[in-house]
Design brief:
Helix content: 40-55%
CATH class of the largest domain: Alpha Beta
Strand content: 5-15%
CATH topology of the largest domain: Rossmann fold
Number of strands: 7
Number of domains: 2
Largest sheet: 7 strands, parallel
Bound molecules: nicotinamide-adenine-dinucleotide
Structural class: alpha/beta
Length: 259
């Protein structure tokens, strides 16, 4: 009897043959996304200003991973990167920095620094790589916003301001370039246990107690793991989510649900 298995179907959620560039991929969420994309067949570019960390991630992933030392705040560096590696299928604008404070505690310089990485970085990378995507009539952009891009968070004035901007940029981009075969979505994580959060914990008088308090304040009693954000990125990157564009994909363990 003839084999009835559908061997000609592509593996579900495969990224085989896709070229993916992930910024901030030397650490935390970006590193988890790079690992996951590579595991399902993508050729990944680990773009980060931390050259050593990017190299180490490449060694960890092996295969076709390529380190790309890059500071996303430099428009010229982003344009050079696009010229160097050519058209890509997936761009994950994940690089981002945090800051604590109210408006009165935030200096103008700090505000500019936050804006330069979290907003201008997304702008620079997207502007550099979009023309190549338009030329091939397909492209998929995933921007790492935050729950703080959808609801306000106390003492995070600069951070929330920049992440709301990322959401606005993403929605406008999705509308402007849907007709060019481009998708653009945001992921809005809640509290994810990464070096980003570990650095914040060190600022508390008792970091271990702060860790326990932070975990207990989450709906499921623990912080989100980077691989749980990578799973969302994988869904958005795959063909199966083809009709999903212009969204804010909340992976916030219910943080925003009651707001
Ligand atoms: N960790 C969380 O709780 C959380 C929650 C919501 C959103 N996010 C967002 O997720 C993203 C990743 O956060 P993470 O927790 O993995 O942080 P992380 O600090 O662990 O990693 C960030 C990476 O970005 C790189 N980077 C920073 N500035 C850069 C620049 N100018 N150019 C290139 N690379 C740069 C760093 O070198 C680092 O490798 C950020 O955009 C952050 O705002 C994080």
């Amino acid at each position: 009897m003839k084999d009835q298995t559908h061997t000609s179907f592509p593996a579900p959620f495969s990224l085989q043959g896709k070229k993916a560039l992930i910024t901030g991929a030397a650490s935390g969420i970006g590193a988890a996304i790079a690992e996951r994309f590579a595991a399902v067949g993508a050729k990944v570019f680990i773009a980060d200003r931390d050259q050593e960390g990017a190299g180490a991630m490449c060694v960890k992933i092996g295969g076709e991973a390529i380190a790309l030392p890059l500071d996303v705040t430099s428009e010229n560096a982003c344009a050079d990167a696009a010229r160097q590696i050519g058209p890509i299928d997936l761009l994950v604008n994940n690089a981002g920095i945090g800051a604590v404070g109210t408006i009165l505690q935030t200096s103008g310089e700090e505000m500019d620094r936050m804006y330069a990485v979290n907003v201008r970085g997304v702008f620079n990378m997207t502007k550099a790589f979009l023309p190549g995507m338009i030329a091939q009539k397909s492209g998929n952009i995933i921007n790492m916003a935050s729950v703080g891009g959808v609801v306000g968070i106390r003492d995070r004035l600069a951070y929330c301001t920049t992440k709301f901007a990322v959401v606005g940029l993403t929605k406008s981009l999705a509308l402007d370039h849907g007709g060019d075969g481009i998708r653009a979505n945001c992921i809005c994580p809640g509290r994810v246990e990464t070096p980003f959060v570990q650095a914040r914990l060190k600022e508390y008088p008792d970091p271990e107690q702060a860790y326990r308090d932070m975990s207990a304040s989450q709906l499921f009693g623990r912080m989100i793991r980077p691989d749980e954000i990578a799973a969302a990125a994988h869904y958005l990157a795959a063909g199966e989510s083809h009709m999903v564009t212009g969204t804010t994909f909340m992976v916030d363990c219910g943080w925003s649900a009651g707001k």
